Amino acid sequence: MKGDTSTMQQKKFGRLQLCTALTVTGLSLAAVLAGTGTAAAAGSAGDEQFRPAYHYTPQQNWMNDPNGMVFYKGVYHLYYQHNPYGNQWGNMSWGHATSTDLVHWKEQPLAIATDDQQDIFSGSVVVDRDNTSGLGTAENPPLVAIFTSAYKDASPYRGLQAQSLAYSVDEGRTWTKYSGNPVLNRNSANFRDPKVFWYDSPNGGGYWVMAAVEATEHKVVLYKSGNLKDWTQLSEFGPANATGGLWECPDLFPLAVDGDPANVKWVLVVNINPGGVAGGSAGQYFVGDFDGTTFISETTKPSGALPAGTPLAGFNYGTYNGWRVTNEPGNPKDGPFAAAPAAGTLAGQNAVTGFAGGGLINSFNDGDWPVGSMDSPGFTVDSDYLNFLVGGGQHPRVSDKLDNTPPPGDLLFSGFEVPDGSTLADAGWTGTGDLEPRLQPATAGGDFYIGAKRINTFETGGAPGDDRQGTLTSPSFTVSRNFMSMLVGGGHRTAGSGQTLEVQLLVDGNVVRSLAGDDAGALNWKGWDVSEFAGQQAQLRIVDQATGGWGHLTLDHVMLTDQAAVPRSDETTVNLVVDGKVVRTATGANSEVLDWASWNVSEFRGRQASIRVVDNNRFGWGHILADEFIASARPATPRVQTYDWLDYGRDYYASVSFNNMPQGKRVMLGWMNNWDYANSIPTSPWRSAMSLPREVALTQTASGPRLTQKAARQVDSLGTAESYAEKRARNIPAGTHPLPAAASGDVQRIDVTFSPGSASKAGITVLGNAGKSTVIGYDKTTGELYVDRSNSGSTDFHPLFASVDSAPVAVDAGGNVTLRIYLDRSSVEVFAQNGLRTITDQVFPEQAPLQQDANQVALFAEGGTARLKSLSVTPLSQSMFQATQARDTKSQGRK
């Protein structure tokens, strides 16, 4: 995704302040391109907490999709979406890095920069050997970049996305935008991500083929050209399989099945966001044939019939059939649910699909703003499962509190409702910098505040904005109750960001408690247990030393209370209610495509229950879709799980392959992040890493040819001698069993083979300490490999980060599971059963990995005894930021 998701009812990210781009000087071109030159002065670059050791990261600032990957004259070029001016999405340009071995990368100067007319979105680079474009010469053919121009308001093409060219005649070092841009314009706002390759016609000759997407239409559009400038449409593919989000970053390439040149199939990769198998961003693929004009898929799945069982509700006859509907009064269209089911898509909504029959629950009536609920008639639970279709917003249930009423207690500081004409300075507050008390309280910004006034550090100083900084300190008050509760919104900053943005409780001048917002405009209830300070004098201090996106706090209605703060549940959910309590809950996936969800309700057999559908969210994706509630003997399989995925984790997206690879190899690379939380991960001064380069192949399976993946051999060349190994089989008793210290590490490869035996679950934990770890296991009951990062360390920076991600994996003929696991400080990449399944997840161990305190490895089994067949641990050498580390080591040695 390229950041502008307005068509998917999500938030746009603002443009960040510009600064001077980095340049590389004093190096020969050969040294620069080979990646062996001296790194620019970087201070502690490479030593920061969570900085990968052998995955590519830019020295600083934001990075997303890989672009224009090409091999040329012995050098691998990696271009990528980059914000040269800040650490969140914006100012999209092409960054650039080079390598001679796919693992030692050297960051280069910015390749293709944003300008006042356009942002530079994703695309590809080809070697125009025959100078078909005329942009080079026969003696010095050009590299040609084909990219998406995302046109700005200053352009005559404003609001459109079209395909443009840039060319390089110095081996990819510098680029010139073609004067005749755009070269392909469909007058579309969502036409993007061209992947171009040369197609050799079986009848002789050939031509360039472009695969691009119409993102919101879920189509791959194919074009041909003889010169890269003039394009003729060939065909379209889609919609097909996963359509729960935007289609992006396609790739189309041939592979020989099991290496047989007489059996070649074509693979079409389509990345999607949201709507991935693990939630949010992911990459799907299709296997089929391409004849130079049309791609025909052999792996498109039918939508499927309804699961067997007893229907409870289907909404197909123009009525809710006894459901009690509570719509918020005062909305023109009686939203959110209206008086009858929707027939499908509502006004202003992207296409709703995946429902069955003639109607469904759709709370987008009158847009995302209205809130309300629906309750089914009561029924007796008489089956093991309740299956239903669900879609819409991804806002889980967090509490029983659906309103914004304050808890009982004592209001401090009059809720900031100072008399008109007065300020917090008149109420005894003190401040520094932009947070002078005479400039507060604010009367603008935020949502769900109480009254008319609140503290808002955005609305202060000489001019409103996220770059306003200072402190604001309250008069003293007595801690007279056990808890403090308050409404808080705005942003937050992690410990490693170098910035502070928080509300602090001071006792005797010391900070004893702190909290912050969640990068949201809506204020919500948060608080502290302050019982240990009973009877003492305290102060409240707001500290804003943050700049950039979400660099502000909003605060209102600070109270002393007898109970802990209960957050308001801004949910869009479907819930099962038994005895007046919610016992099961589900939410959407930020998608207008409904898919199956299942609840195991066997424990409630014979009891009365009801279904409650809740829309308590007013903002982006603030609606819920539901349909076809069916009591069943077995769970329904979500359709999304039946499709073919490049990776089953949360952090492998926008993956495409290198052009012009030697020996005809096909190597792919993905962005190791997810748009659900990409702007919030706790890394600084950079944000995001690339995955390992992966060599992909097709192998014959019982379901037909499918992709297998393995890390490029150059990755394993970073391995040193094994630090720990077990070559003889042994039992793994129930429980968790730490391995010796020789197996510990956070930059290493682990190869393990085990049999689940009598255990229900078994596997290995990594990046662990006394209380937290990342769990990589096999669930024998479900036949799934999983990565559980819910207790992996820092997970609270975004509500959608903590996850358990799983992939269907069958044991081999010997009943074994074989895993190759790559650890790199803040990530795990798991390759199962010779690469038939992969799971890629970021993890952020709470303690700094470089201090060797979150690096323990353990084996575990649950519910029985598993059998370890073999295990080896191989440390991997650092391949990034080596020069900086060498300088730092020498400097430390002289101290």
Q: What key phrases describe this protein's structure?
A:
7-stranded antiparallel sheet, 3 helices, 58 strands, single chain, 895 residues, mainly beta, disordered C terminus
So what's the overall shape? globular
Largest sheet: 7 strands, antiparallel
Are there runs of 5+ residues with pLDDT below 50, and where?
Answer: 4-43, 884-895
How far is it from the N-terminal to the C-terminal residue, by CA? Answer: 47 Å
Number of helices: 3
Question: Which percent range fits the helix content?
Answer: under 10%
**What proportion strand?**
35-45%
pLDDT averaged over residues: 92
Protein architecture, described:
By secondary structure, the chain is mainly β. 2% of the residues lie in helices and 41% in strands. The chain is built from 3 helices and 58 strands. Strands 46, 47, 49, 54, 55, 56 and 58 form a 7-stranded antiparallel beta sheet that branches. The radius of gyration is 28 Å and the shape is globular. The C terminus is likely disordered.
Write a concise synopsis of the structure shown.
The chain is mostly beta strands and 895 residues long.
Secondary structure elements and pairings:
Blueprint: H1 29-34, E1 61-72, E2 75-83, E3 93-99, E4 106-107, E5 118-127, E6 143-151, E7 161-168, E8 176-177, E9 184-188, E10 191-200, E11 206-214, E12 219-225, E13 232-237, E14 246-256, E15 264-273, E16 282-290, E17 295-297, E18 310-313, E19 324-327, E20 361-362, E21 372-375, E22 379-380, E23 385-392, E24 409-411, E25 430-433, E26 455-456, E27 470-473, E28 477-478, E29 483-490, E30 501-507, E31 510-515, E32 520-529, E33 537-544, E34 553-561, E35 572-578, E36 581-587, E37 591-600, E38 608-615, E39 624-632, E40 653-657, E41 667-672, E42 686-687, E43 689-690, E44 694-701, E45 704-711, H2 713-716, E46 724-726, E47 730-732, E48 735-738, E49 747-755, E50 761-768, E51 774-779, E52 784-788, E53 804-808, E54 817-824, E55 827-832, E56 837-842, E57 856-862, E58 866-875, H3 882-893
